[in-house]
Predict the structure.
Amino acid sequence: MAELQVNMFPCLSDNYGYLVHDGDSDVTAAIDTPEASKVNAALEATGWKLTHILNTHHHFDHAGGNLELQAKWGCTIVGSSSDAARIPGIQQQVADGDRFDLGGHSVRVLDVSGHTQGHIAYYFEDDAILFSGDALFALGCGRLFEGSADQMWTSLQKVMALPDDTVVYCAHEYTQANAKFALSVEPQNEELVARAKQIDTLRDRGEPTVPSDIGLEKRTNPFLRPMSEDLQATVGLVGAPLVEVFAETRRRKDVF
Ligand code: ZN
Ligand code: FE
């Protein structure tokens, strides 16, 4: 097993596409397919051959390139069993807690529903890398299109249980807007203030703010911080159950 290589590239207006590659087995997976032409361009640039697609959920900016890429490469499409009816070309169905091998790398499936039903994240456990799709963003979390706040909070707790040094690759460059909201609900968080400045600098240079890591998200992402007394005070729910604080934080972000 070689070290997992990750190739990241912008797609559409604010998505990230990813290729992961193992040099010994020559296995290459696309994490979602936001834009087939960009995935093909990344394959050409790296010289890798696409063997798998790992879908996080069915939204068009995540699975829209599936069929075109499958027709070209004959790759195996993996997705959630509870989202299977909506994932074009799905061949291998996985569910929460499943482990599968990808080119010698152990991948654990986390069901992180809330943004959609059947949204999954892929945790490469030996490599300490998480592909979080639209469940967890840098300084944010997915909108609740299909799930409840209760369900999303349960999902995010699974992610928070991963080791702090787990590298998080999310599916969108939303970080700068997320930082503005985060600062509005937890302005006293010094690490958040510093992170927001770094994010502004990166975006001024046109550079990505992704990836981050679980420890940094736990210390600065308001959706992982309903236990913060400052955040509780801002949303007027001091001492309330964490799920209620999370729900109110998510509701405020929707109208921010
Ligand atoms: Zn989505
Ligand atoms: Fe998306």
Q: What stands out?
A: The mean pLDDT is 98. Residues 200 and 206 are 10 Å apart (CA to CA). Residues 59, 61-62, 134, 171-172 surround fe (iii) ion (ligand 2) (CB under 6 Å).
